[in-house]
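User: For my dataset I need records formatted as: sequence, then structure tokens, nothing else. Please produce one.
Assistant:
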Amino acid sequence: MEERSYTAFATPYLLRALLAANGWGLVIVLLVIWLGHAKPPPREMLYMSDRDGDWDIYSLDADLGLSLRLTYDPLFNFPNTLIFNRYPAWSPDGSLIAFHANPLGNYDLYIMNADGTNLHQLTDSPADDAMASWSPDGTRLVFHSQRTGNWDIWTLNVQTGAQQQVTFYAGDDNFPVWSPDGRSLLFVSDRRGTQEIYVRSALTDAPPEALNGYSLRQLTNNNRDEWTPVWSPDGRYIAYSAEEPSGQEIFVMHADGSNTRRLYSTISEEWNPAWLMTPDGLALTFVSTLDGTVQIYLLDFDDFDRGYGPANRITVPRDPDAEQWAPDWRPR
């Protein structure tokens, strides 16, 4: 007789959500029984929302549709300034979350465990530090900072705390992200007038005068402001948002800056793109006002040349005035 194995799986995310909702009262444990193989871990997405009064960080189990709040702060700090926890970013191994927050007045970088515990402050500058992105090996963060009087790009060693300035332009360089192979940095700069997308070597110890030729390349030249570029996990594509006459829209291009395509042509606005690698291929998450509220949507990317699948809303508006921003998927 053929031997069959049975695996029981209860997602810790569900248990945490039930505990958060019910305290130490009755907790319902759901066991999902799979025949022949274990259930894969849930698709978990970080995002920020103002649904509870100020901006906090939440985690969504996309398979169950359950959200769990990860950051808790008093509504105001001294002197009566709203505390915002913004733009969460998963570490490559999915164990840590980096984000920026302003409990001391200005924005600094913070890090915490995936369940919201063990919170640590990483930077302590009188200027704003924001928009952290992890290196693929999980050892460093790249971020933008105003500590020189304008936005420049810096890196931070997560273990030692050592920080290094990467760009020295007199204007603004911001929204940096590491390439999937760790060799390049993608960022936005106004060095040609409008906010355009650039790529440069990730060799952060290179002197400013060495950043020429291939080391610093402009990928877009559209005479419009562009924001939050992100590489696809396979490094083939870059998605970003751009200012159009109708508002913010999302565009996708090849990693070398060629073949730019607009995601949608609607009266709604779309921004904050984030990629997801699924068993079926690439998917793209973004923020949109498609239904009149600010929610997060997911669509199958399928193939760049064949077009995109339909967009499905994955956040549920508990309050029509609340907004959901900055999706980021947990690595699997």
